[in-house]
């Protein structure tokens, strides 16, 4: 009996470690996982630091955009205005075409054409007087309120750039004709009359109103 006990004692006093239980290993894993949140703020701080480091690179680009010359903006504005004017001119011409085909001339267009028709009639009287050698009568026919009314009508009826350019030409020719007739020079007045009629026809064609007038 004593021999059995003697054998058992050395076994119980042995210094060898017993293997860890599963519960002990789980505690170690939980401790390791619990330490991860301490690393997450560090990663976040590193990300913010990276963005702040990149900010000086991004800011000069925004300042460069702010320094774009105003001339570019002005050019865009001018193009937009030109496009708008062209669109309005096209719309107005379409309205005139519709009014002619559907119900004849509308009242607004009729009123705008009255000074133009008066100008044609006055030019015809002036031309007849010059043909007869009466420069004084021609000068009288070229004066009056119809000149001012005709100028106003050209502004209203000139929707396109071509029409505006032609209107300026006919007004210049008409002014030169008036001056020549007032000076009493028959030859100058006749040349001025031919030039005025030619520029008048060019403007009427550019304004697209030739079919609405008589005497040309």
TrEMBL record:
It comes from Chlorella variabilis (Green alga). Residues 115-216 form the Maintenance of Photosystem II under High light 2 C-terminal domain. It comes from the Eukaryota. This is Expressed protein. GO terms for biological process: photosystem II repair. Coiled coil: none annotated. InterPro entries: MPH2, MPH2_C.
């Amino acid at each position: 009996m004593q021999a059995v006990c003697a054998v058992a004692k050395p076994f119980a006093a042995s210094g060898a470690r017993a293997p860890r239980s599963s519960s002990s290993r789980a505690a170690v894993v939980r401790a390791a996982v619990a330490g991860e949140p301490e690393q997450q703020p560090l990663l976040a701080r590193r990300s913010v630091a990276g963005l702040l480091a990149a900010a000086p690179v991004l800011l000069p680009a925004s300042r460069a955009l702010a320094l774009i010359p105003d001339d570019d903006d002005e050019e865009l504005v001018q193009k937009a205005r030109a496009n708008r004017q062209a669109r309005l001119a096209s719309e107005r011409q379409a309205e005139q075409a519709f009014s002619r085909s559907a119900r004849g001339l509308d009242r607004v267009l009729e009123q705008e054409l009255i000074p133009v028709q008066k100008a044609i009639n006055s030019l015809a009287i002036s031309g007849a007087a010059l043909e007869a050698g009466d420069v004084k009568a021609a000068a009288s026919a070229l004066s009056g309120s119809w000149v001012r009314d005709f100028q106003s009508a050209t502004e209203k009826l000139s929707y396109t750039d071509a029409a505006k350019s032609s209107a300026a030409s006919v007004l210049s020719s008409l002014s030169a004709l008036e001056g020549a007739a007032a000076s009493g020079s028959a030859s100058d007045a006749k040349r001025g009359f031919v030039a005025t009629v030619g520029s008048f026809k060019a403007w009427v064609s550019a304004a697209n109103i030739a079919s609405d007038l008589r005497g040309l």
